[in-house]
Write a structure and sequence with these properties.
Length: 286
Protein backbone atom coordinates (compact mmCIF):
# COMPACT_ATOMS: atom_id res chain seq x y z
CA UNK A 1 0.00 0.00 0.00
CA UNK A 2 1.44 3.37 -1.03
CA UNK A 3 2.25 6.10 1.46
CA UNK A 4 -0.19 8.39 -0.37
CA UNK A 5 -3.02 5.88 0.11
CA UNK A 6 -2.21 5.51 3.80
CA UNK A 7 -2.34 9.29 4.21
CA UNK A 8 -5.66 9.41 2.39
CA UNK A 9 -7.08 6.79 4.72
CA UNK A 10 -5.87 8.74 7.73
CA UNK A 11 -7.39 11.96 6.39
CA UNK A 12 -10.66 10.17 5.69
CA UNK A 13 -10.97 9.20 9.35
CA UNK A 14 -11.21 12.88 10.24
CA UNK A 15 -13.86 13.72 7.66
CA UNK A 16 -17.50 14.14 8.68
CA UNK A 17 -19.83 12.84 5.94
CA UNK A 18 -23.55 12.95 5.28
CA UNK A 19 -25.64 12.15 2.19
CA UNK A 20 -25.90 15.04 -0.27
CA UNK A 21 -29.24 16.54 -1.14
CA UNK A 22 -30.75 16.21 -4.61
CA UNK A 23 -30.96 19.16 -7.02
CA UNK A 24 -29.28 20.86 -9.94
CA UNK A 25 -25.82 20.10 -8.56
CA UNK A 26 -26.43 16.39 -8.97
CA UNK A 27 -26.38 16.77 -12.73
CA UNK A 28 -22.66 17.49 -12.54
CA UNK A 29 -21.69 14.15 -10.98
CA UNK A 30 -20.58 10.90 -12.61
CA UNK A 31 -18.94 7.79 -11.18
CA UNK A 32 -15.21 7.79 -10.47
CA UNK A 33 -12.72 4.97 -9.97
CA UNK A 34 -11.03 3.59 -6.89
CA UNK A 35 -7.60 4.43 -5.54
CA UNK A 36 -4.50 3.33 -7.41
CA UNK A 37 -0.82 3.76 -6.76
CA UNK A 38 1.04 6.53 -8.54
CA UNK A 39 4.75 7.26 -8.62
CA UNK A 40 5.63 10.74 -7.36
CA UNK A 41 8.54 12.26 -9.27
CA UNK A 42 11.74 13.37 -7.62
CA UNK A 43 11.11 16.97 -6.59
CA UNK A 44 13.70 19.72 -6.52
CA UNK A 45 13.40 23.51 -6.58
CA UNK A 46 15.91 26.30 -6.23
CA UNK A 47 15.53 29.21 -3.83
CA UNK A 48 12.82 31.72 -4.76
CA UNK A 49 10.94 34.66 -3.24
CA UNK A 50 8.94 34.01 -0.09
CA UNK A 51 5.82 35.13 1.76
CA UNK A 52 4.52 34.46 5.28
CA UNK A 53 1.00 33.03 5.46
CA UNK A 54 1.31 32.57 9.21
CA UNK A 55 1.06 36.32 9.63
CA UNK A 56 -2.32 36.43 7.86
CA UNK A 57 -5.55 36.84 9.77
CA UNK A 58 -8.68 34.71 9.52
CA UNK A 59 -10.22 33.17 7.54
CA UNK A 60 -7.00 31.54 6.27
CA UNK A 61 -6.79 28.15 7.99
CA UNK A 62 -3.30 26.98 8.93
CA UNK A 63 -2.04 23.69 10.30
CA UNK A 64 -2.59 23.50 14.03
CA UNK A 65 -5.69 25.69 13.99
CA UNK A 66 -8.01 23.92 16.39
CA UNK A 67 -10.44 26.54 17.60
CA UNK A 68 -14.08 25.50 17.86
CA UNK A 69 -15.05 28.16 15.32
CA UNK A 70 -12.75 26.74 12.63
CA UNK A 71 -12.67 23.02 13.34
CA UNK A 72 -15.62 22.19 11.10
CA UNK A 73 -14.14 24.06 8.14
CA UNK A 74 -10.76 22.38 8.68
CA UNK A 75 -12.35 18.93 8.62
CA UNK A 76 -14.32 19.82 5.50
CA UNK A 77 -11.18 20.90 3.63
CA UNK A 78 -9.47 17.68 4.70
CA UNK A 79 -12.37 15.72 3.25
CA UNK A 80 -12.04 17.54 -0.08
CA UNK A 81 -8.28 16.98 0.09
CA UNK A 82 -8.88 13.25 0.44
CA UNK A 83 -11.13 13.22 -2.62
CA UNK A 84 -8.53 15.08 -4.70
CA UNK A 85 -5.82 12.69 -3.58
CA UNK A 86 -7.99 9.81 -4.73
CA UNK A 87 -8.47 11.41 -8.13
CA UNK A 88 -4.72 11.88 -8.28
CA UNK A 89 -4.06 8.25 -7.45
CA UNK A 90 -6.76 6.74 -9.66
CA UNK A 91 -6.75 9.07 -12.66
CA UNK A 92 -3.44 10.92 -12.54
CA UNK A 93 -5.10 14.28 -11.78
CA UNK A 94 -2.31 16.83 -11.23
CA UNK A 95 -4.04 20.17 -11.81
CA UNK A 96 -7.42 21.52 -10.73
CA UNK A 97 -9.22 24.71 -11.72
CA UNK A 98 -11.33 26.28 -8.96
CA UNK A 99 -14.10 28.54 -10.24
CA UNK A 100 -17.68 29.65 -9.63
CA UNK A 101 -20.67 30.98 -11.53
CA UNK A 102 -20.04 34.56 -10.45
CA UNK A 103 -18.00 36.74 -8.13
CA UNK A 104 -18.05 36.66 -4.34
CA UNK A 105 -18.75 32.94 -3.89
CA UNK A 106 -15.55 32.03 -2.03
CA UNK A 107 -13.40 30.43 -4.73
CA UNK A 108 -10.21 32.31 -3.84
CA UNK A 109 -10.35 31.54 -0.13
CA UNK A 110 -11.25 27.94 -0.93
CA UNK A 111 -8.24 27.70 -3.25
CA UNK A 112 -5.84 28.92 -0.57
CA UNK A 113 -7.26 26.82 2.25
CA UNK A 114 -7.39 23.69 0.09
CA UNK A 115 -3.77 24.25 -0.95
CA UNK A 116 -2.70 24.59 2.68
CA UNK A 117 -4.56 21.40 3.55
CA UNK A 118 -2.98 19.43 0.67
CA UNK A 119 0.52 20.62 1.55
CA UNK A 120 0.11 19.06 4.99
CA UNK A 121 0.33 15.63 3.34
CA UNK A 122 3.93 14.47 3.31
CA UNK A 123 3.74 13.38 -0.32
CA UNK A 124 2.31 16.60 -1.75
CA UNK A 125 4.24 19.58 -3.10
CA UNK A 126 1.52 22.07 -4.00
CA UNK A 127 1.44 25.11 -6.29
CA UNK A 128 -1.33 27.72 -6.21
CA UNK A 129 -1.68 29.82 -9.36
CA UNK A 130 -3.61 33.10 -9.47
CA UNK A 131 -5.32 32.76 -12.84
CA UNK A 132 -7.77 35.55 -12.04
CA UNK A 133 -5.29 38.19 -13.14
CA UNK A 134 -8.01 40.85 -13.48
CA UNK A 135 -8.65 40.97 -9.73
CA UNK A 136 -5.53 39.21 -8.34
CA UNK A 137 -7.46 38.10 -5.27
CA UNK A 138 -5.27 35.10 -4.47
CA UNK A 139 -2.17 37.23 -4.98
CA UNK A 140 -3.38 39.70 -2.35
CA UNK A 141 -4.62 37.03 0.07
CA UNK A 142 -1.35 35.08 -0.09
CA UNK A 143 0.91 38.14 -0.05
CA UNK A 144 2.46 37.30 -3.43
CA UNK A 145 2.16 40.73 -5.06
CA UNK A 146 4.71 42.18 -7.43
CA UNK A 147 6.53 41.00 -10.51
CA UNK A 148 7.39 38.61 -11.94
CA UNK A 149 4.11 36.73 -11.82
CA UNK A 150 1.86 34.81 -14.15
CA UNK A 151 1.38 37.77 -16.51
CA UNK A 152 5.13 38.09 -16.97
CA UNK A 153 5.39 34.35 -17.60
CA UNK A 154 2.62 34.37 -20.21
CA UNK A 155 4.08 37.35 -22.05
CA UNK A 156 7.55 35.82 -22.13
CA UNK A 157 9.10 38.35 -19.75
CA UNK A 158 9.98 35.86 -17.01
CA UNK A 159 10.92 32.21 -16.66
CA UNK A 160 8.48 29.81 -15.07
CA UNK A 161 10.51 29.37 -11.90
CA UNK A 162 11.16 33.10 -11.51
CA UNK A 163 7.46 33.62 -10.80
CA UNK A 164 7.35 31.18 -7.87
CA UNK A 165 6.83 32.48 -4.35
CA UNK A 166 7.53 30.11 -1.45
CA UNK A 167 5.23 30.31 1.56
CA UNK A 168 6.15 29.49 5.14
CA UNK A 169 3.80 26.51 4.92
CA UNK A 170 6.21 23.71 3.94
CA UNK A 171 5.80 22.49 0.36
CA UNK A 172 3.29 25.20 -0.58
CA UNK A 173 4.15 27.67 -3.36
CA UNK A 174 2.23 30.48 -5.08
CA UNK A 175 2.44 32.16 -8.47
CA UNK A 176 0.89 35.61 -8.23
CA UNK A 177 -0.95 37.45 -10.99
CA UNK A 178 1.94 39.74 -11.91
CA UNK A 179 1.67 43.26 -13.25
CA UNK A 180 1.46 43.16 -17.06
CA UNK A 181 -1.61 44.99 -18.36
CA UNK A 182 -2.23 42.83 -21.45
CA UNK A 183 -5.81 41.50 -21.79
CA UNK A 184 -6.21 38.34 -19.73
CA UNK A 185 -7.88 36.30 -22.46
CA UNK A 186 -5.05 37.10 -24.86
CA UNK A 187 -2.47 35.86 -22.38
CA UNK A 188 -4.16 32.50 -21.79
CA UNK A 189 -4.79 31.99 -25.51
CA UNK A 190 -1.06 31.74 -26.20
CA UNK A 191 1.09 28.62 -26.18
CA UNK A 192 2.97 29.69 -23.04
CA UNK A 193 -0.01 28.88 -20.80
CA UNK A 194 0.02 25.23 -21.84
CA UNK A 195 3.80 25.13 -21.63
CA UNK A 196 3.70 26.63 -18.14
CA UNK A 197 1.12 24.09 -16.98
CA UNK A 198 3.21 21.28 -18.44
CA UNK A 199 6.17 22.47 -16.38
CA UNK A 200 3.95 22.72 -13.29
CA UNK A 201 2.78 19.12 -13.79
CA UNK A 202 6.38 17.96 -13.89
CA UNK A 203 7.48 20.04 -10.90
CA UNK A 204 4.60 19.75 -8.43
CA UNK A 205 2.34 16.97 -7.23
CA UNK A 206 -0.77 19.15 -7.36
CA UNK A 207 -1.48 22.50 -9.01
CA UNK A 208 -4.59 24.48 -8.06
CA UNK A 209 -5.57 27.40 -10.28
CA UNK A 210 -7.81 30.16 -8.94
CA UNK A 211 -9.84 30.96 -12.05
CA UNK A 212 -12.17 33.84 -12.96
CA UNK A 213 -15.93 33.15 -12.82
CA UNK A 214 -17.28 30.73 -15.40
CA UNK A 215 -20.02 32.93 -16.83
CA UNK A 216 -19.40 35.98 -18.98
CA UNK A 217 -15.64 35.56 -19.57
CA UNK A 218 -13.52 33.58 -22.03
CA UNK A 219 -10.81 32.99 -19.41
CA UNK A 220 -12.35 29.89 -17.82
CA UNK A 221 -12.43 27.82 -21.02
CA UNK A 222 -8.88 28.84 -21.94
CA UNK A 223 -7.50 28.12 -18.47
CA UNK A 224 -9.32 24.83 -17.89
CA UNK A 225 -8.26 23.45 -21.29
CA UNK A 226 -4.71 23.03 -19.96
CA UNK A 227 -5.78 21.51 -16.61
CA UNK A 228 -6.97 18.06 -15.58
CA UNK A 229 -10.15 18.85 -13.66
CA UNK A 230 -12.57 21.49 -12.37
CA UNK A 231 -13.95 22.18 -8.90
CA UNK A 232 -16.93 24.50 -8.79
CA UNK A 233 -17.70 26.70 -5.78
CA UNK A 234 -21.32 27.47 -4.95
CA UNK A 235 -22.20 29.79 -2.08
CA UNK A 236 -25.39 29.26 -0.12
CA UNK A 237 -27.69 32.26 -0.35
CA UNK A 238 -25.51 33.86 -3.03
CA UNK A 239 -25.59 31.76 -6.22
CA UNK A 240 -28.98 32.14 -7.87
CA UNK A 241 -30.81 29.26 -9.52
CA UNK A 242 -30.62 30.71 -13.03
CA UNK A 243 -26.84 31.24 -12.86
CA UNK A 244 -26.38 27.73 -11.49
CA UNK A 245 -28.46 26.19 -14.27
CA UNK A 246 -26.50 28.13 -16.91
CA UNK A 247 -23.22 27.06 -15.31
CA UNK A 248 -24.25 23.40 -15.24
CA UNK A 249 -25.01 23.60 -18.96
CA UNK A 250 -21.70 25.31 -19.67
CA UNK A 251 -19.73 22.74 -17.66
CA UNK A 252 -21.23 19.75 -19.45
CA UNK A 253 -18.26 17.57 -20.42
CA UNK A 254 -15.72 20.00 -18.91
CA UNK A 255 -13.84 17.59 -16.60
CA UNK A 256 -15.87 18.45 -13.51
CA UNK A 257 -14.55 16.66 -10.39
CA UNK A 258 -17.12 18.02 -7.95
CA UNK A 259 -18.80 20.99 -6.31
CA UNK A 260 -18.10 22.68 -2.99
CA UNK A 261 -21.11 24.35 -1.42
CA UNK A 262 -19.88 26.83 1.18
CA UNK A 263 -21.36 29.44 3.45
CA UNK A 264 -23.93 27.06 4.96
CA UNK A 265 -25.05 27.86 8.49
CA UNK A 266 -25.01 24.67 10.53
CA UNK A 267 -26.02 23.70 14.04
CA UNK A 268 -25.04 23.69 16.79
CA UNK A 269 -21.72 25.48 16.30
CA UNK A 270 -23.07 27.95 13.70
CA UNK A 271 -19.81 28.14 11.72
CA UNK A 272 -19.76 28.54 7.95
CA UNK A 273 -19.87 24.98 6.64
CA UNK A 274 -18.24 23.65 3.48
CA UNK A 275 -20.11 20.96 1.55
CA UNK A 276 -18.50 18.77 -1.10
CA UNK A 277 -20.33 16.97 -3.88
CA UNK A 278 -18.09 14.46 -5.63
CA UNK A 279 -18.42 12.40 -8.76
CA UNK A 280 -20.59 9.38 -8.19
CA UNK A 281 -21.82 9.31 -4.61
CA UNK A 282 -22.82 12.80 -3.52
CA UNK A 283 -21.33 13.57 -0.13
CA UNK A 284 -21.72 16.45 2.24
CA UNK A 285 -19.07 17.47 4.74
CA UNK A 286 -19.51 20.12 7.38
Amino acid sequence: MSRLFREMQEAEKHSVKQPASDGALGALMTAFGEDAQIARPTWRLEVCRSTALRAKMRPVLLAGDGEASTQGALEAYRAVRTKLARFQAAQGIRSVVVSSAGMGEGKTLSTLNLGISLAQLQTQHVLLVDGDIRTAGLTTLAGASGAPGLSEVLTGQATFQAALVATDVPKLYVVGAGEVATAASDQFAGALWREFMGWCHETFDMVIVDCPPILGLADFDLISAACDGVLMIVRAGKTNREALAETVEHLNGKKVLGVILNGMKTQPSNYNGYYYYSRGKGRTVS
